[in-house]
Design a protein that fits this description.
Number of domains: 1
Oligomer: single chain
Structural class: mainly alpha
Largest sheet: none
Number of strands: 0
Helix content: over 70%
Strand content: under 5%
Number of helices: 14
Radius of gyration: 19 Å
Order of helices and strands: HHHHHHHHHHHHHH
Length: 321
């Protein structure tokens, strides 16, 4: 019997769907980069969540978890993580590198879960975290030699905020990831708009909105409806039919699509040092994630036992950029 955590246990159509979602989330970094030429970063993030929430909030039903979790995740994920990511990219962090560096969220998630939930990471996950952090160090050296260090640091902090939101999501245990994400999307809109007016200014926001064209509309639709509504809808569908240990590894394809699409559409070069960072980071995240999934299956029972609908893992609710 194929183990529950083996992607071969998924139907070919479901494997293709998981790959499509990873591609959509990876290409999204390129779309963000282009969108930052149309909108200030905080306004752009606010518009993304506004369009993701409306009109979907009227069709997904009432929230299925307590409001404290929706507000908490909305502030940490929507305002802090996405606000810092968009500002970092606006200040010069390359799209492809951003898609890669954000994956260190798996390390932050494991660390925060160990502190707040008492989850001991184990030797394999500790090794994976060390390898991933080594990858971040190599990426920092590469970016420090050729790009703005502050932008790099902002994306690292964004990844840490993503880790906090993952732990909050684990505590919330939403039964429907799309319903949860749509309601979470209602929270950041006003705070992000307020921060945009405070730091980016009314004139800059008004000019961006006045210059809105079909290209800008398409960008907002992609980051809101395609990456959020479609992405989370499809991901929730996969998690309802397969254990998370089968589905979660497909998120490792996100930086692959992110870096390749950035090279193809934006002409971003990938230095040998950056390839080394990518190998270390993706390998470390894979070891961190899959070791956690194996520990969960071992605690739950043998591999051929009926798999639960959801398995805890280092990234229970992946968040596209």
């Amino acid at each position: 019997m194929v183990p529950a955590g083996d992607p071969r246990s998924m139907r070919p159509l479901h494997i293709a769907l998981a790959a499509v979602v990873a591609a959509v989330w990876g290409v999204n970094f390129v779309v963000i980069e282009v969108g930052l030429g149309h909108f200030p970063p905080l306004l752009f993030s606010a518009l993304r969540f506004l369009v993701a929430a409306l009109p979907a909030v009227f069709f997904v039903g009432r929230p299925k978890v307590a409001w404290k979790w929706i507000v908490g995740v909305g502030l940490v994920l929507g305002v802090a993580k996405f606000g810092l990511l968009f500002i970092g990219m606006d200040r010069g962090m390359p799209a492809g590198l951003s898609s890669l560096v954000l994956q260190v969220q798996a390390v932050f998630t494991a660390l925060f879960a160990a502190v707040t939930l008492g989850e001991r990471p184990g030797g394999a996950r500790m090794l994976g975290m060390g390898i991933a952090l080594a990858g971040i160090g190599v990426a920092a050296v590469d970016e420090g030699a050729s790009g703005p260090v502050l932008a790099f640091v902002l994306v690292i902090v964004a990844a840490a905020c993503w880790g906090v939101s993952n732990v909050l999501t684990r505590k919330a245990a939403p039964p429907d990831s799309l319903n949860f994400m749509v309601w979470v999307s209602t929270v950041p809109v006003l705070p992000l708009l307020g921060l945009s007016l405070l730091f980016e200014g009314w004139d800059r926001d008004a000019d961006a909105l006045a210059a809105l064209d079909w290209s800008g509309v398409g960008i907002i639709v992609y980051v809101a409806w395609i990456t959020t509504v479609f992405g989370f809808g499809a991901w929730g569908f996969l998690l309802r039919h397969h254990p998370a240990s089968s589905v979660a590894p497909f998120t490792l394809l996100v930086p692959v699509f992110g870096m390749s699409s950035a090279a193809l559409f934006l002409g971003e070069s990938v230095s040998p040092l950056r390839w080394c960072a990518a190998a270390l980071l993706v390998g470390g995240v894979a070891l961190t994630s899959l070791a956690g999934a194996r520990r969960t299956r071992t605690a739950s029972g043998p591999d051929d036992a009926p798999a639960p609908e959801r398995e805890p893992g280092p990234n229970p609710a992946p968040s596209p950029a």
